[in-house]
Amino acid sequence: MSAGGANRVKPMPNEAKAPARDAFRHFLPIATRWMDNDVYGHVNNVVYYAYFDTVINRYLIDEGGLDIAGGGTIGVCVESHCAYLRPVAFPDTIDAGLRVAHLGRSSVRYEIGIFGQGQAEPSAHGWFVHVFVDRLTRRPAPLPERIRAALERLTDTSP
Amino acid sequence: MSAGGANRVKPMPNEAKAPARDAFRHFLPIATRWMDNDVYGHVNNVVYYAYFDTVINRYLIDEGGLDIAGGGTIGVCVESHCAYLRPVAFPDTIDAGLRVAHLGRSSVRYEIGIFGQGQAEPSAHGWFVHVFVDRLTRRPAPLPERIRAALERLTDTSP
Amino acid sequence: MSAGGANRVKPMPNEAKAPARDAFRHFLPIATRWMDNDVYGHVNNVVYYAYFDTVINRYLIDEGGLDIAGGGTIGVCVESHCAYLRPVAFPDTIDAGLRVAHLGRSSVRYEIGIFGQGQAEPSAHGWFVHVFVDRLTRRPAPLPERIRAALERLTDTSP
Amino acid sequence: MSAGGANRVKPMPNEAKAPARDAFRHFLPIATRWMDNDVYGHVNNVVYYAYFDTVINRYLIDEGGLDIAGGGTIGVCVESHCAYLRPVAFPDTIDAGLRVAHLGRSSVRYEIGIFGQGQAEPSAHGWFVHVFVDRLTRRPAPLPERIRAALERLTDTSP
Predict the structure, then answer these.
(1) Which domain range does residue B26 map to?
(2) How far is the C-alpha of C71 from the C-alpha of D89, rounded, in Å?
């Protein structure tokens, strides 16, 4: 499980402040599943990363035309992080918020917020770095144009 | 999937150097499962956190006497992080290395390395913060003595 | 993965005919997740059972008042089965259909159909038997009245 | 969770008798993971199918030379079933027993038993049907010779 109703441990000095709902430009509702809960009665900490993967890849597919079955360029995760603030549990539906913090030539750093429905403050928030690579050689490749355009719409500074 | 065969993205300035196998004091072999692999053919980034959860809780149960079914004090995750360096895939068995980076009154910060068998350099490494709480009130509680003693044996400075 | 585009193996003599969408009285849309797909590019056979668990327990909670955290009577699975007819894949959303084939004193046999959206014929169909037990003794217990009433609404012979 | 300590529901007339440990010719020890347990404190019914997938595919890879990344012929699941007799729970390690009940031209029916270590009677048992198909067309294909030879060693009637 994740943070439960526990008072939060003292924040790490380098920790990003938890972003509120209005900091995100894109949301995907995700229904929790029975198996998401663990022995302690709330969604297991691992499962939040499955929500991250899902909101990111859904966006890349729907808005950027990512072809996970046969496309020549794919995104692989090189780093991920999550801070857990308050628990969620099956049968809740959560809203996964997504924004882009940094967009490089072949990499992108996403920030994700997990919100209970109707809540302004996140239950958890984290980040995730994708490097885009050639499917066969697995060497870094420039972001495909359509994906770049889709991700630019999620950056903080886009109009 | 995780980092694939890709050249690693330029490290973040604040990133911890990847710890080698001899930096860890405890190991648990974990057999990968068919479902651990994703569409891109390697263990999915999410699954590494299931390995983290497993090596940590196995240690707490086996060495610290943690009672996940009925104990009065339980550990909840408040923060986790993973950096992915090279892929692993089913049917590999991996070694999960565990050490303790910080041991507080009611919290502990673990570091974990995921190693291919026979490999000195990790495939992935990360950290994970547990806050121990009262099972019912979910308020922070001191680490039970037997758990504290077990975790001290995994700190860097223990003899 | 499950049956893929493969021609179906010759049906077993005792196999139930695949039920069409109009055979079900209750549906839950379930969004697939990135991790649901396996190496072969479609939702893994295991994951269908997570859909079964989810449609069943959501119905028991929403309509029958099942309290998974503290209720005195809980449902445990004693048998499950699935036949896979055609594949589904992330990022599809599926509709999970649910009906009740048999309602006993302390047990219930559900039938589930997994449908692509807008499709009349199932991608997969299966069944699942719950025995209701006392949470503490784990001995069979009569179905709570509110749950029984909710399940009767899903039986074939209800008006 | 699965059957818990519950008395078993009355067996279905067509149900196979639970096979004991000595009915199996091949075993794979599988360590449970933290996430395998559900809210009710035991391994979730879904997870047993992940054990099935794992013992089967490990055997096909190790003994039959199945190449899941690039081989021309792959096995897809068309039907699966599990009966749950008594619970297992993290941190247990289970033994997954495997035998072959029927070997056709392009399909195979496996039987699996899940045993607590040192136990003669299964915690759960089930079956699983693979159809081998061409990876690209997904049409049934004859079992590759090396796989057939490996599976014949697991049939009841092999010497």
Answers:
(1) 21-152
(2) 21
Give average pLDDT by consecutive 10-residue segment, chain B, 159 residues: 45 62 96 96 97 98 94 96 97 97 97 96 98 95 97 77
Q: State whether residue A41 sits within 8 Å of chain D by CB.
A: yes
Interstrand relation of C73-84 and C93-103 (parallel, antiparallel or unpaired): unpaired
Predicted local distance difference test score (pLDDT) of residue C159: 44
Report how far residue C52's alpha carbon sits from residue D145's, in angstroms, rounded to the nearest whole number. 36
* Within-domain flag for A158: no
Q: How many domains does chain A have?
A: 1
Burial of A120 per CB tally in 10 Å (0-12, 13-18, 19+):
exposed
Does residue B11 belong to any structural domain of this protein? no
Cβ separation B91–D58 shorter than 8 A? yes
- CB count within 10 Å of CB C91 equals 19
Q: Torsion angle of alpha carbons C57, C63, C69, C75, nearest 10°?
A: -50
- Range list of β-strands (E), C11-105: 26-31, 73-84, 93-103
Q: What is the pLDDT of residue D11?
A: 40
pTM for the full model?
0.91
Q: Please tell me the distance from the alpha carbon of residue D63 to that of residue D65, in angstroms, as a whole number.
A: 6
Residue B109 to residues B21, B29, B112, C92, D144, Cα–Cα distance (Å): 18, 21, 10, 38, 50
Q: What is the mean pLDDT of residues A66-76?
A: 93
Touching B (3+ Cβ pairs <8 A), the chains are: A, C, D
ipTM of this complex prediction, to 2 decimal places: 0.90
Q: What is the pLDDT of residue A116?
A: 96
Query: pLDDT (tens digit, 9 = 90+) per residue, D26-66?
Result: 999 999 999 999 999 999 999 999 999 999 999 999 999 99
| Predicted local confidence at residue D1, as pLDDT | 53
Is there a domain that residue B16 lies in? no
Token reading at A67: 């072809």
- CB contact under 8 Å between D34 and B41, yes or no, is no
Domain CATH number, residue B137: 3.10.129.10
Both tokens assigned to A125: 């928030």
Distance to chain B for D127, nearest Cα, Å: 17
In this structure, is residue D15 part of a structural domain? no
- Residue B39 has its nearest CB partner, among C41, C46, C47, at C41
Locus of tokens 């075993």: D27
**Order of strands, edge to edge, in the sheet holding B107-116?**
A26-31, A93-103, A107-116, A124-134, A73-84, B73-84, B124-134, B107-116, B93-103, B26-31
